[in-house]
Automatic annotation (TrEMBL):
This is 23S rRNA methyltransferase A. Gene3D superfamilies: Vaccinia Virus protein VP39. Pfam families: Methyltransf_32. The keyword Acyltransferase does not apply.
Length: 389
């Protein structure tokens, strides 16, 4: 190729060098096809431990990322035309070059429309899915929702709807975070097999096109190993998993989003406390069973109402989450509570969403203390976030 085309190739490749530096966790490979007369040759570039490996002409050369442009340009000089395909999670970049022109195009991974053939089941009617079958097949297969035939498993349609609705409910929050920060750091408290983290990871990186990093925390070594296995299968390099009690965890980096799904009783409080202690910018919690307040609270004017155990338990659930909301507001969060799924699917269906907006709110603290005295309760959450009130 002529000198002018080589210079343009070098300019485009300098941009790719910077992209690899910034997006190393998401980089897959570069495939280069070179033409000379009627013959075609191939080169492949991969990344390992922050070094590039160039496979070309029977050799496998190791090089710095910043050498990429110079090496590829040197090779391209010997050929009439070149097609280069840069691949990272969710995006491909094509560079086509010859003596007449050099063109670069960015293309998102192509997506098939989702879920045809499942409308007769519990699928949400006329839903435009956030996590689409076709584009998200690798993810959905890895977490057991999609079968090898490319269709949602009949017994997993409800779960698919649930995780997709979760994304819908946090979408605005994610977009707000991605607009403020170059990379979104997410901590999953009591992660289990981390299905939500995998889905969020996919959505942030491959749909919103934003960089992210996930840390999964759980006290069970078995589920942590299961999460690590799925991450390895998906090649999600931007995830780490730790066997730890969340009460003992302190993040070394800013936490932009702390999540927890169906952590039982005061484990949800421990997850909220982790978020508050680490000054998380946003929190999304879906609590599970609530026992602590049930065993503590009493309120004389309602004694005839709550003398039936089932009614006392249901009111305890409301009081528990209401107290969590009040304490989050007291430490400077704006909070909303919504239904995560239909109560017909599970009574544990509330989602608490909170975004950091300021410092401790004295008025909110006083309101909480008044409610605490009226009910005669001593919540765990207050005890563990007291230094931040």
């Amino acid at each position: 190729m002529n000198k002018q085309s080589i210079q343009k190739i070098g300019l485009f490749l300098s941009g790719l060098e910077q992209r690899i530096v910034e997006n190393g966790d998401f980089f897959k490979k570069i495939t280069i096809k070179l033409k000379s007369g009627t013959k075609f040759y191939e080169a492949i570039v991969t990344l390992k431990e922050e070094r590039l490996f160039l496979q070309y002409n029977g050799r496998n050369d190791k090089m710095e990322i910043t050498w990429l442009g110079a090496r590829i340009c040197k090779i391209a000089e010997q050929y009439e035309a070149m097609n280069l395909i840069y691949e990272e999670r969710g995006t491909t970049i094509h560079i086509d070059a010859d003596d007449r022109n050099v063109r670069m195009q960015t293309r998102d991974q192509e997506a098939a429309e989702a879920c045809s053939g499942h409308n007769e089941t519990s699928q949400i009617a006329n839903r435009d899915y956030y996590i689409k079958v076709g584009k998200a097949d690798a993810l959905l297969k890895a977490i057991g929702i999609l079968g090898e035939n490319g269709k949602i498993k009949n017994d997993m349609i409800r779960k698919y709807n649930q995780i997709d609705h979760y994304i819908e409910l946090v979408d605005d929050m994610l977009k707000n975070l991605s607009g403020k920060y170059g990379k979104i750091n997410v901590v999953d408290c009591g992660c289990g097999k981390s299905y939500l983290s995998f889905v969020l990871n996919y959505y942030i990186k491959e749909v919103l096109k934003k960089n992210c990093h996930f840390t999964g925390l759980d006290i069970s070594k078995t589920v942590i190993e299961a999460s690590q296995s799925i991450a390895s299968r998906l090649d999600y390099k931007n995830m780490e998993f730790r066997v730890t009690d969340i009460r003992n965890y302190t993040s070394e980096e800013d936490i932009h989003l702390a999540i927890s799904l169906h952590a039982c009783d005061t484990a949800t409080d421990e997850a909220i406390a982790l978020a508050v202690k680490n000054n998380a910018k946003a929190i999304v919690m879906v609590p599970c069973c609530q026992k602590e307040i049930l065993s503590q609270y009493s309120f004389e004017p309602l004694q005839n109402v709550i003398r039936h155990g089932v009614l006392k338990a249901r009111l305890a659930d409301v009081l528990t989450d209401g107290i969590r909301v009040m304490l989050l507001e007291a430490v400077g969060y704006k909070v909303s509570v919504v239904e995560y799924v239909s109560p017909l699917e599970t009574p544990k269906n509330l989602m608490i969403r909170a975004e950091k907006t300021g410092s401790a709110n004295k008025a909110a603290i006083e309101e909480y203390l008044t409610i605490k005295r009226l009910l005669g309760v001593n919540p765990t959450l207050e005890k563990i976030i007291t230094p931040y009130l």
